[in-house]
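hey so i finally got around to running both of the ones u sent me last week. sorry it took forever, my laptop kept dying halfway thru and i had to restart like 3 times lol. anyway pasting them below in the order u listed, first the sequence line then the structure token line for each. didnt double check formatting much so if smth looks off just lmk and ill redo it

first one:
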Amino acid sequence: MRSLVTGANGFVGSAVARCLLGAGHEVRCLVRPGSDRRNLHALPVEISEGDLRSVPSLKRAVAGCDNLFHVAADYRLWVPNPETMYDINVRGTEALIRTAAEAGMARMVYTSSVATLGACRDGTCVDEETPSSLECMTGHYKRSKFLAERAVQRMTDELGLPLVIVNPSTPIGPRDVKPTPTGRIVVDTLRGRMPAYVDTGLNIAHADDIAHGHLLAYAHGQPGERYILGGENMTLLQILQAIDALQGKRTRRLGIPISLMLPAAWCMEKMALVTRAEPRATLDSVHMARKKMYYSSEKAMRVLGYRYRPAVEALADAMAWFQGNGYCNPAYRPDG
């Protein structure tokens, strides 16, 4: 049984690759030429270089594979050229699914995101049935993932594809090499650079639990259905306090109204246009923080048998990995 994993050198993708190897799959990894492959070091996987924007490379990658796990995505909350994100997340996804269908894949799992789902200002848990629309999507990342998921759903229905959609929440854990925006929160807290917080909330899930959820979706998911792969709902302050507790310390922090963050985010984005480095805060991220991003994994637990560990364990594993790989060194810079 050979499975193709796109984005296998990334945070969630590498966890999915490891999970598949543990289940006895042969794994082929579609990765971009020149990409960071630290997460694949010493893994018994086959590398297929390519790009979601190159159909010939997609055809080479799917050849001889039985299953597809499409995890790759351009995940940034700020991007100098938004069209690149749509090329990868939307048009690249459509091209890959079409190519996999033509190759006769027996099973496909598409990694969407909870970003495509609706949201509730009062902190009510969102599930797969919560209404959403393109107009409600904040920023290019969320809009591109929303459009990609709709395209995948349409292709699945029209072509009768054996495809299941999973919607991971906020992954935390080891091997977050970039790191992700949430991983940066962990790193900044460890470095004493989170003196303040805003009143928002996230759903925290261990990356390895999310990866195992992919395998469960592959084994038990119904084609055309989508499943939230999440974890524990926590306010940002609770997350920061949990990291402090794991370090054996307490930190006094200032609560800042979200409205005061908007001017700072605007300035950071203007500076980023000059430096070309991703800003620490963006207007989109501040607008998103107005809502507590809480989700329910009840459907995945009931149908797939999905389970998740306490968020504090995910945070502890992330902290240990960041500390063990030099991210807390004073010389560390997130963009290189």
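and the second one:
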Amino acid sequence: MNEKQRVNRKKLNKSLDKLFLILGFSVTLLALGILLTLILDIVQDGWGRLNLDFLTHFPSRKPQEAGILSAWVGTLWIMTLTSVIAFPLGVMAGIYLEEYAPQNRITNLIEINIANLAGVPSIIYGLLGLGLFVRFMHMGRSVISGGATLALLILPMIILSTREALRAVPFSIREAAYAIGATKWQTVRHQVLPSALPGIMTGTILAMSRAIGETAPLIMIGALTYIAFLPAPPLQSQFPFLHLNGLFDPFTVLPIQIFNWVSRPQKGFFEDAAAGIIILLGIAFLMNAVAIFLRTRYQKKIRW
């Protein structure tokens, strides 16, 4: 290849780079424009229904009197249980597989299965939750069954993100800890895990964002489409001041309540559904904001 051909090839590569940049930027703007249009349409339809009565009233057959109290309270219950169950189990499993597990056929089989489970449709987890938690473990169609089912749904995602975050930690940090006499657990606990925590939190954010909008698994385990009461609160005024009876109460969540309203013919229920979507987005943004705050806080503490 002579000098002229190299110059022409260089110009062609620069032109292709610019074309790819323009194409990527255009596709991003298109996606953001579609998303913004959908959000504005939802806000326009549902903003008028957002008031204190809508948040503090139970569902009703009359769209003007319908509220979303039981749905958003049930969503908070389910999301809290899901995170409490899935986060520690997923992180511990990821640490074991990445830092402690021997490299053999059994470990390879486990890794392949975890990667496959991350792509399994959510309805399959609903069937698993129905058979395992509702029928076999006799938990009933309760809050704890819903939280455990969604925990299974996001567990593979948390395990994979934990392993990727641990791999991103420079091996020199481990070597330095071993050089000063730290044990394996001391190295993981005080050096590797804090450094990997921002990446773990990122994976957890994505997993929880998926869980909060899932409807199919909860429908399979028997979440109600209409409920006029709340799960029993965990705090009480009498000794022992804490009880978990609410974990075994029936429940509903925002996606199911929204689905129920959308399926009705009255126009007023479409406005209620739009307002419910706004509440659901608000809860999702709030959860993500808390997780991002924790991730940023740990990132500032890291000094490689």
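quick thing i noticed on the 2nd:
The radius of gyration is 24 Å.
anyway thats it, ttyl
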